[in-house]
Amino acid sequence: MGARRFGRTNWRGCAALAKRESQRFLAIWQQTIAAPLVTAGLFIGVFSLAMAGRPPVMGVPFLHFLVPGILMMSVIQNAFGNTSSSLVGAKVMGNIVDTLMPPLSPGELVAGYLAGGVARGVVVALVIVMGAGLALGVWPAHPLWLLVFVVIGGVLLGALGIVAGVLANKFDQIAAMTNFVVTPLSFLSGTFYSVEAMPPAMAMLSHLNPFFYLIDGARYGYLGTSDSSVWLGLGVTVFATTALVLLSWSWFKRGYRLKP
Fold first, then answer.
1. Contact yes or no for 121/157 (Cβ under 8 A)
2. pTM across the whole model
3. Contact 76/153 with Cβ under 8 angstroms?
4. 60, β-bridge pairs
5. What pLDDT digit, counting tens, does each position of 202-239 carry?
6. Total Cβ atoms within 10 A of residue 161
């Protein structure tokens, strides 16, 4: 009784949690998949009207320059929303115990939640790539690099969503985290402009923001050009992702703000 009979890792349990987290957003695809595509189209449409005749940015047409930034911003917001809303919803409804009681280790819990966030981010990215390709005729120059940064962005923001979900006790607190942390950091990371055009002090602050390297890496994968070294961006984002994943793991292990 009580012994783990499925080996060192509970693959079946982890897969079940990942499936549940994926089904959460697939069940309401109109909000989680179609809505980001509509939002991306609105951004591109508005900027195409407001910035008509603007010269190329970093050697590419301005509308093409916008696509990877909008794509990564959508990945960031959706990966964060998937994990944070799942945890807070379970805490508010009082069924978080149903996730903590099964024979899943802290690492397996983190992996299951992150799988849902990454899956949602990848699906949203794929939809926007297809939409931008069909509408603007722009396709990724380095698809593998784009996929790498989309996955890293999903893991990074999924882990940040776990941290926010553990700390929050109601949805209002998650909304505050989104409005005052996630959205400003993504908007001020070169989503709609090149940071090289900013004053030196602001450009330096942008280079301290991990979101900048996610967007810059996605821009390299999409257009083949970037503000900084793609390898530097990979190193910074992997470091930030590892730190947040370890923090999430330690809080699940302790049951911090999850267990009475």
1. yes
2. 0.92
3. yes
4. 57
5. 778 888 899 999 999 999 999 999 888 999 999 999 99
6. 31
